[in-house]
Amino acid sequence: MRKDARHSGTVDPAKSCVQDAQQRPSHPLRPLTARKPFAPLFLPPTVLYPLLRSLEQILKQLLPPACLLCGIKLNALPGPPYLCPECARACVNQPIAACAICAEPFRSASVISHWCGQCTTSPPPFVWLKAIGLHAEQLQYAVHQLKYANQFQLAEALALLLLSRLRSDIVAFNPQNIIPVPLHPKRLCLRGFNQSLLVARHLGTKLDIPVSTRHLIRTRPTSSQTKLNLAQRHQNILGAFSIDVPLPPRRILLVDDVVTTTATCRECAKVLSHAGHQVAVVALSRASLQH
Length: 291
Hints:
By secondary structure, this protein is an alpha/beta fold. The chain contains 10 helices and 6 strands, in the order H-H-H-H-E-H-H-E-H-H-E-H-E-E-H-E. The strands form 2 sheets. It has a 4-stranded parallel β-sheet with strand order 1-6-5-2. A two-stranded antiparallel ribbon has the order 3-4. Helix 3 packs across helix 5 and helix 5 packs across helix 6 (about 155-175). The longest helix is centred in the middle third of the chain and has 21 residues, at about 155-175. The radius of gyration is 34 Å and the shape is globular. The chain starts with 12 loop residues before the first helix and ends in a 5-residue tail after the last strand.
């Protein structure tokens, strides 16, 4: 005998849902809001820079600086780039006499200033060339560490040494632009950086002079000058530079790393002078084929 559905245990699902909905208290639905992504804390420069300087001073106290060349710990807290007095003095070692134009070291002392044989027979297209010191000992080591060991801190060290010795000459020349001796793109890709440009940028910052990197370019690769004599060096570098983006005639400070025969500087200055510029040259170190 079939039981009546009203008295059975079965429940109509549709009616049950309606009844539950009527019995449940009504609550307003909260709108869905997207979660805010993580936002890093940005500090204004007026707050960030003093904070970084304070942190730098704390690190100097905890980790005393060391000389970049000899590694000796420095008791004082000088500004970068941390050279001890002995290394700084060794870097500015000067010859007993030198050419008044290209700084070619002479073997013997001279009472009066005079030109070397190359500048006498073939005057250079630059006003003067000056360097920090002779390419020897600590200065030679510093240049090699910058070029071949990626010790980029030495770019600022060498720039400051250059200014400590040559600031008055540079200010008297009153350059309007600084141009580093450019590398060919192939050499730049192999090395990864232009050491003359690194130094030039620090000079530009200290002297408040713009650095031009697109005006003078290297148009063809050249072999290394290291094992070439004077005539071969001049021939090797001939026609290797040109003007890319023109500039109005200006006083240009050309920056090189090591000068030996002035062949590279002469070729750069020749191209720049043909474009109407007046050129003076500063180098990190001065070598010579005669020594």
